[in-house]
Design brief:
- The complex is a heterodimer of chains A (313) and B (256).
- Chain A is α/β, with parallel strands linked by helices and 313 residues long.
- Chain A is 34% helix and 29% strand.
- In chain A, the strands form 3 sheets. A 6-stranded mixed β-sheet of chain A has the order 6-7-8-3-9-10, with helices on both faces.
- Chain B has 256 residues and is mainly alpha-helical.
- Chain B contains 9 helices and no strands.
- The longest helix of chain B has 36 residues.
- The chains are: A alpha/beta (313), B mainly alpha (256).
């Protein structure tokens, strides 16, 4: 069993007006290993935040068991919460009228943990915001507030950090900086990160394993590299010349996408599940007047993997 | 637990100091409001010999009511503000129970309010030509025990705030309603003694007008005082917990 384990988690809500029952999380199970960055990916309303909040003990599940280091979050809430710290919904986690250092001291204090001012400043140094340590949080930029929020989480002794949409509203450079920090949190500080996000670039850059959620269920849960490899092997970008109107209909069953017509060439992408299909495609082209100019294995990004799984649902 | 208590008190002090102008404005409003009441009363009953005797009672009653409403308003408005800001969930995620965090904040706010209110009380007594010669220990005893019922009311309102969020108008109604509790003549019916702060107000009037000390009151008076405070504190914690559980079922903690 991993450091964080979710077994058959179910959470439903009742709509206020219609009294209709909505299933936000539908019997999901996860096992997150120590020292990994695990990403929960999904469209709006997929159930990611509900899952994160249930893990944090902020939501009572209808059924299922969540354990952190073997401690049940519902039955032994206090003990379990010692192992968890979270940043929820971007920068809405700090007291605006306190400084980052005061926030760190306060949030450690309310967990019964002690941190000195010196240690708090040293931690802010990791995030490159030492010079802002005595500014009020409300005076910081969004990116700095986000870094301060994550620093506050890291300041606790919790082994598992839950980050809900950590790059929400950040500019490109801050988002890239945050990716580096997240890797550092795991490698240098020995923590485990559970990430919930829409940001495919973030997932691609930092995640070890990925679970894609849709409509409250986990559609796929795999190592990121394995998913990338799987899709990389499937996607081909094909360039044809001398294409007549009827030629493209030969490829209809392969569901070509990203079709571009330019200077007598037609480019499109198809997913080929096995070698047989590739041979079949070549055969079809041979039967037509068209000629193959090139076939290249496409560089796959996580966005495509995500869309594929979501559209299959 | 001790660290959580201290750090909550520390946070209150920082915010009080950092926003001193705001705190000062609040204090000035309190004093101005008092003078309006005082001079209003003087205009109506200034010529009567009894008025001088009741001034002490008015001063003590006003500041006790203030202590009462500051206590429950801070709890409920604090929860509303934190739900809006998003920090409420962070505090909830602490391994130390939320009720204890609220209690710690209340202690911090109580200390600040107590220093402020007692100081102001002597200031207005001085400026209105009265010397408050009642026993300070008795005053503190009554305020500390009495205010526990206000905290219970605050916890009830805080619990309601967790679910319904926008309850500022309701809190204002309770604020004015609380004035009635402190004005009631509890000798008419013993049940009235069990209303929040009513028994405290009654004992304070005796302290101000009859120079009662902590030892002068009959035992039953103390029992009513403690019983009323314990009842409301207990009801407050119970109601808060049930609303808290409801909020955790419906996911209302992070919504505003």
């Amino acid at each position: 069993m991993g450091i964080l384990s979710v077994k058959n988690l179910v959470k439903t809500y009742r709509r206020r007006k219609t009294r209709e029952i909505l299933t936000a999380v539908d019997s999901i199970s996860l096992d997150i290993n120590e020292g990994e960055i695990f990403a929960l990916l999904g469209p709006n309303g997929a159930g990611k935040t509900t899952t994160i909040k249930a893990i944090c003990g902020l939501l009572l599940p209808d059924s299922g068991v969540i354990t952190v280091k073997g401690e049940d979050v519902v039955k032994h809430r206090a003990t379990a919460l010692h192992h968890i710290s979270a940043v929820l919904e971007g920068n809405r986690n700090l007291y605006y009228r306190l400084t980052p250092v005061e926030n760190i001291i306060y949030f450690c204090g309310i967990r019964g943990e002690k941190i000195t001012r010196k240690d708090a400043i040293a931690l802010l140094e990791v995030f490159g915001i030492t010079d802002k340590s005595d500014d009020l949080v409300q005076q910081l930029s969004r990116g700095m507030q986000q870094k301060a929020a994550i620093a506050t989480t890291l300041a606790t002794k919790a082994e598992v950090l839950l980050l809900d949409e950590p790059t929400l509203g950040l500019d490109v450079s801050s988002a890239i900086e945050l990716r580096r920090l997240m890797k550092e949190i795991v490698s240098e500080h020995g923590r485990t990160i559970l990430l919930s996000t829409h940001d495919m670039n973030l997932v691609e850059a930092v995640a070890d394993r990925v679970a894609i959620m849709n409509k409250g269920r986990i559609v796929v849960c795999e190592k990121k590299e394995k998913l990338m490899k799987l899709f990389r092997a499937r996607a081909y970008r094909i360039r044809l010349t001398q294409v007549s109107g009827a030629t493209m209909s030969l490829f209809a069953s392969l569901e070509p996408r990203d079709i571009q017509k330019e200077n007598g060439f037609v480019d499109f992408t198809v997913d080929l599940t096995n070698q047989e299909v590739l041979f079949e495609l070549v055969e079809r082209v041979r039967q037509s007047e068209a000629r193959i100019e090139s076939i290249e294995q496409e560089q796959v990004n996580f966005e495509r993997i995500f869309l594929k799984y979501i559209s299959d649902q | 637990m001790i660290r959580a208590l201290l750090v909550n008190i520390w946070k209150n002090l920082i915010e009080f100091k950092r926003y001193f102008f705001n705190s000062l404005s609040g204090i000035l409003t309190i004093v101005i409001f008092f003078y309006l009441i005082f001079f209003g009363l003087q205009a109506v009953a200034g010529g009567t010999p009894q008025f001088g005797d009741t001034i002490d009672g008015v001063i003590v009653g006003y500041f006790m009511w203030l202590m009462f409403l500051l206590s429950f308003q801070n709890v409920s408005f604090g929860i509303i503000e934190e739900a809006q800001r998003g920090t409420l969930e962070q505090v909830f995620m602490s391994p130390i129970p939320f009720e204890f965090q609220v209690f710690s904040r209340i202690v911090g706010e109580f200390l600040i309010n107590l220093l402020m209110v007692v100081g102001l009380m002597y200031l207005v007594a001085f400026t209105t030509g009265r010397s408050l010669n009642f026993n300070l220990i008795t005053l503190l005893y009554l305020l500390i025990v009495g205010v526990m019922s206000a905290l219970g009311v605050g916890m009830i309102l805080g619990g309601i705030a967790l679910i319904f969020k926008r309850i500022s108008s309701f809190i204002q109604i309770v604020t004015f309603g609380s004035l009635a509790f402190t004005m009631l003549d509890v000798t008419a019916n013993p049940i009235l003694r069990l209303l929040p702060m009513s028994q405290t107000a009654h004992m304070m009037r005796f302290m101000a007008l009859e120079n009662y000390t902590i030892l002068s009151y009959p035992l039953t008076e103390h029992l009513y005082l403690w019983a009323a405070s314990a009842i409301y504190l207990f009801i407050g914690i119970t109601v808060f917990r049930s609303f808290e559980k409801r909020a955790m079922v419906t996911g209302a903690l992070g919504q505003y």
